[in-house]
Amino acid sequence: MRGMRQGMGQVGQGMGLMQPKKFAVPLVFVAIATIIPFIAPSVYLLHVLILAHIFVIYAASWDILTGYTGQLNLGHAMFFGLSAYVVAITNTMLKTPLFLSVLMGVASAFILSVAVGLPCLRLRGPYLAITTFSFSWVLFLLASSAMIWLSGGEEGVRGVKTFIVGTIPNYYLSLVLMLISVYILYRIASSETGLILKAIKEDEDAAMACGIDTTRYKLLAFLMSGTFAGIAGAFYAQYMRIVTVDVVTLELSASAIAFSLVGGIGTIIGPAMGAYILTILFEGFAWLADYRVLIYNLIIVSFVLFLPGGLMSLRDLLRRREEEGGGVGGA
Fold first, then answer.
1. Is 17 a domain residue?
2. What is the mean pLDDT of the chain?
3. CA nearest 191: which of 11, 7, 65?
4. Is 278 inside any structural domain?
5. Which range of residues forms the domain containing residue 126?
6. Residue 293 in contact with residue 304, Cβ under 8 Å?
7. Secondary structure of residue 252 in the 3-state scheme
8. Is it the case that residue 162 has pLDDT exceeding 60?
9. 8 Å CB contact between 56 and 272
């Protein structure tokens, strides 16, 4: 255990040395994102980017659980959807102040993550995946039929209040929320906690043999994942001002996996990139009607086949080719 902690410390020091280079690209992204409303003040474009910001948080929250601990979650939309519904229902029906409704929405996602995480602690592989899918499916059935009197069914819950009015203010609010959320998750993933989560993913039995309380860390991953997905769902509810069964569908759960496959699982930044790119592309192909779904899925399949490590693996692939080229040249 002592050797493992020393190794973690060395890795942490190395990561600290690389931070200036690692933050160069994010700083450029922030600079560009800040001026977009001035150079392209299209309401529709800003709306798409706001949705992209929301799904970035959603994708990164899925990755901290599945990408780092290896616990396959096929029902991630349940956290997002429950939070969105709680915000909408409490704000419109109970007339709760929006800020309090948002807190209640995030808290509900946190509680659900405990309720799902505890029975899943001893499950692995397909059993865990089926269990998370089942929880999400139950929530979908409640929202779409069994409790339609509360959820509104296909019509949804309308009239949710919003923090600020206007596309540009909401754009900047969503941008700040996204940056803060991704930064927090990235810092956690880069810390000793993140290394322990990855150790659990690689070999849980070996991690237990080293004295790691795998049960506690797996539950922690569930709590972080559910809470941040709840944050995304709560913001979605107040921005869209309507919540329908779309927020608890299997498609939304699958989208978290798609975002991560395109960006790179187990990196936090990768799923964030994937969410940003795929959301923009999907909306950009809107003029193709039903064909955009086909194109969207072809892009995902192409990444799985030709770039299984996602966009985050491109740098390593290019570096490897340069080294091979240098080796051949030297020979």
1. no
2. 87
3. 11
4. no
5. 35-249
6. no
7. helix
8. yes
9. yes
Q: pLDDT tens-digit profile of 39-61?
A: 888 899 999 999 999 999 999 99
What residue type is assigned to position 52 of the chain? A
Q: How far is CA 92 from CA 77, 82, 96, 119, 144, in A?
A: 22, 15, 7, 33, 19
Task: Pick 163 or 8 by higher pLDDT.
Answer: 163
Residue 67 scores a pLDDT above 80 = yes
Distance between start and end Cα atoms, the chain: 43
Exposure b/e, 308-323, CB count within 10 A at least 16 = b: ebbbbeeeeeeeeeee
**CB 264, CB 271: distance < 8 Å:** yes
Q: Which long-range contacts (CB under 8 A, 24 or more apart) does 191-195 make?
A: 191/12, 192/5, 192/8, 192/12, 193/217, 193/220, 194/68, 195/8, 195/11, 195/12
Beta-carbon contacts of 288 under 8 Å, excluding residues fewer than 6 positions away, are: 295
Cα–Cα distance measured from residue 38 to residue 60, given in angstroms and rounded to the nearest whole number:
28
77-92 helix and 125-141 helix, angle to the nearest 10 degrees: 20
The pair of structure tokens assigned to 53 is 């910001």
Q: Which tokens go with 304?
A: 């799985």
Other Cβ atoms less than 10 A from the Cβ of 175: the count is 20
The total number of structural domains in the chain stands at: 1
254 occurs within a structural domain: no
In a domain, 65, yes or no: yes
Per-residue confidence (pLDDT) for residue 327, from 0 to 100 = 55
